[in-house]
TrEMBL record:
<keyword id="KW-0255">Endonuclease</keyword>
<feature type="domain" description="Tc1-like transposase DDE">
    <location>
        <begin position="10"/>
        <end position="99"/>
    </location>
</feature>
<dbReference type="InterPro" id="IPR036397">
    <property type="entry name" value="RNaseH_sf"/>
</dbReference>
<keyword id="KW-0540">Nuclease</keyword>
<keyword id="KW-0378">Hydrolase</keyword>
<dbReference type="InterPro" id="IPR038717">
    <property type="entry name" value="Tc1-like_DDE_dom"/>
</dbReference>
<dbReference type="Pfam" id="PF13358">
    <property type="entry name" value="DDE_3"/>
</dbReference>
<dbReference type="GO" id="GO:0004519">
    <property type="term" value="F:endonuclease activity"/>
</dbReference>
<protein>
    <submittedName>
        <fullName>DDE superfamily endonuclease</fullName>
    </submittedName>
</protein>
<dbReference type="GO" id="GO:0003676">
    <property type="term" value="F:nucleic acid binding"/>
</dbReference>
Length: 120
């Protein structure tokens, strides 16, 4: 059945610079709470590792509550410049994750790890 509604999904992802392993997380929204859930799961998956994330200035990343959680988790955030076309190749990482998305909205199985979505 065609509903005409576009289902929006947000794909959060990170990659180990040491191994190249990628971790994807799918959410229906891009709120601070959703990003914070992703941060907790990354910390759980990479426990014992130094975690640094390269991010843009999207409000879910810069929220005061997110910044507090980042401090408690010991995660380091590195901010992208607002206009940095030389960093555009990073978009390829997200495109690869999007292409593997299953019809249910979850990431299709692969050698990389996808984490469960938050309940709606």
């Amino acid at each position: 059945m065609l509903s005409g509604a576009n289902i929006r999904r947000v794909v959060y992802g990170c990659m180990s610079l040491h191994t190249g392993h990628r971790l994807f997380y799918v959410s229906q929204r891009q709120r601070a709470l959703d990003f914070q859930a992703f941060l907790r799961l990354v910390r759980r998956y990479y426990r014992g590792w130094h975690v640094a994330m390269l991010l843009d200035n999207e409000t879910s990343h810069t929220a005061k509550s997110t910044q507090g959680l980042v401090q408690r988790l010991g995660t380091r955030l590195v901010w992208l410049l607002k206009r940095a076309p030389e960093l555009k190749p990073m978009e390829l990482l997200w495109l690869q994750g999007e292409k593997r998305r299953a019809p249910t909205g979850n990431i299709a199985p692969s050698t990389n790890t996808s984490l469960p979505s938050l309940p709606s």
